[in-house]
Amino acid sequence: MSNTLNLEHIFDYDQNFQTIMQSMLQFALESSFQGVMITEAEPGYPIVYVNPSFCEMTGYTFEELIGKSPALLQGEKSDNAVLAELKDKLDKGDIFHGKTFNYRKDGSEFIMEWKIVPIHGVEGVASHYLAIQRELTGTDLTDGSLDTTLPIF
């Protein structure tokens, strides 16, 4: 028997439990050490949510990001092969996991690793994408290279 709560049925309980769980999920997003972004599954993937860690990592404010495309983080050294794989995975409804160079608001570059999962509505169609992101530093790159081929965990 699993010790984890099945999140699929987390809101099947009474209103008090739903409120508690909603508060816990919100706190988990807001206090995470990892950047979190949620976009619509529409052309350009408009951003509908970013957490404080994402804003800290990129230098953008919440207000500056809402409604914008995540492409605003890309630049000269962003790996086009990784971005093509990202588009392909999203088009197929698959989970994406990769890393590439991205750019902060001030133009400075950083290496970002991220995983994107499609969020499906009741019809089974992706309505949003949830991205968990982190900045990689020299200690995270064991061989010193930017190997963009990563396993999906």
Chain-wise SSE layout:
Blueprint: H1 15-31, E1 35-40, E2 47-50, H2 52-58, H3 62-65, H4 80-92, E3 96-103, E4 109-120, E5 126-136
Antiparallel strand pairs: 1-2, 1-5, 3-4, 4-5
Task: Tag the structure with descriptive keywords.
5 strands, 27% helix, five-stranded antiparallel beta sheet, 4 helices, 153 residues
Protein architecture, described:
With 153 residues, the protein is an alpha+beta fold. The protein is 27% helix and 27% strand. The protein is built from 4 helices and 5 strands. The chain has helices at residues 15-31, 52-58, 62-65, 80-92; strands spanning 35-40, 47-50, 96-103, 109-120, 126-136. Strands 2-1-5-4-3 form a 5-stranded antiparallel beta sheet. A hairpin with a 5-residue loop joins strand 3 and strand 4. The longest helix has 17 residues, at 15-31. The protein is globular and about 50 Å long. The two termini are 22 Å apart. Residues 147-153 have low confidence and may be disordered.
- In terms of quaternary structure, what is this? single chain
**Count of extended strands:** 5
Helix content: 25-40%
Question: What is the N-to-C succession of helices and strands?
Answer: HEEHHHEEE
Low-confidence stretches: 147-153
For the largest beta-sheet, the strand count, sense and barrel status come to: 5 strands, antiparallel
Number of helical regions = 4
How much of the sequence lies in strands comes to 25-35%
Structural class: alpha+beta
Mean pLDDT figure: 85
Strand order of the largest sheet: 2-1-5-4-3
Rg calculated over all Cα atoms: 17 Å
Judging from the principal axes of the Cα atoms, what is the shape? globular
